[in-house]
Specification:
alpha/beta; Rossmann fold; 4-stranded parallel sheet; 11 helices; oxidoreductase activity
Length: 285
């Protein structure tokens, strides 16, 4: 996304969790001098303040903010740790609030744009994914409220909702899922371990996650997401929402579930989703 904006000649301040990391270094070596890599942990108020001062002191105006920071959170509500849930909310939701509160004064002056990167999971929740889903549902309603608040200032707020782009980042890779799933399972009581056997809960969950990605044709190419962000930033009439399919199949099943979720009864959706979720690995005892 940062590379895409840089290629258009836009001055970009690319916030990185680790400004000395591999990703940050790639941006430095492949982008123009218009792109500035900055250290930014969206849970750290001091770092947000530093970036704000840098932009305010060096730029005539700030046109847009793209909130893209996010992490995943997988597991049953009974098992996943509160620490993991809290961190997910702190980054995916409260991080957006922190950044918006800090930079909105500059955006109001320029009558600019806010683009929040949400997810299809903010519109249709899934089993064993509650921490992530609730963080994105919260981001959806935050974006709606903020859009209505900012309308009188001429500021537009858009939300981008990518569907099946799980291969585009390392966050959903098996090795990333494996460690926290096992760590959480190791801490639960013996009674819960009998309800959620490790062989079924961890190993089969991972196996089914990989299978689902392959069957649904998850995309690596984020071009459709970048195009939505560009439209949100620069279109004269940006959309409030951009629901972006990410499959190389005929249709993205994630988008289909969103539309079905709007019209079908809850119990019907429960039955549909039960057959297409790693949740089915938890057998009845």
């Amino acid at each position: 996304m940062a590379k895409c904006l840089d290629s258009l000649g836009v001055i970009v301040f690319a916030g990185c969790l680790d400004s000395a990391g591999k990703g940050a270094e790639t941006l430095r070596t492949t982008c123009s001098s218009n792109l500035h890599v900055v250290q930014l942990d969206v849970t750290n108020d001091e770092q947000i303040d530093e970036v704000f001062c840098m932009i305010k002191n060096n730029c005539k105006e700030l046109w847009g903010v793209v909130n893209n920071a996010g992490i995943g959170c997988w597991g049953a509500v009974e098992i996943v740790s509160m620490e993991w849930i809290q961190r997910t909310m702190d980054i995916n939701t409260y991080g957006v609030v922190r950044v918006c509160k800090k930079f909105l004064p500059l955006i109001r002056i320029s009558r600019g744009r806010i683009v929040n990167i949400s997810s299809v999971r903010g519109l249709s929740s899934r089993a064993l994914n509650s921490g992530y889903c609730m963080s994105k549902f919260a981001l959806e309603t935050l974006s709606d409220s903020l859009r209505r608040e900012m309308k009188r200032f001429g500021v537009h707020v858009s939300v981008v909702e990518p569907a099946n782009f799980s291969l585009a980042t390392e966050g959903g890779a098996p090795e990333k899922l494996d460690i926290p799933l096992r760590a959480d399972w190791d801490t639960i009581t013996g009674e819960l371990k009998s309800v959620y056997p490790r062989e079924e809960y961890v190993e089969q969950y991972l196996a089914n996650s990989i299978k689902n990605k392959e069957m649904c044709g998850a995309k690596k190419d984020t071009t459709p997401i970048n195009e939505a962000v560009l439209d949100g930033l620069f279109s004269r009439q940006p959309c409030c929402r951009y629901l972006i399919g990410g499959t190389d199949k005929i249709m993205d099943i994630g988008k289909v579930y969103v539309f079905l979720n709007w019209f079908l009864p809850c119990r019907t959706m429960d039955r549909i989703l039960e057959g297409d979720s790693p949740h089915r690995v938890i057998s009845k005892k």
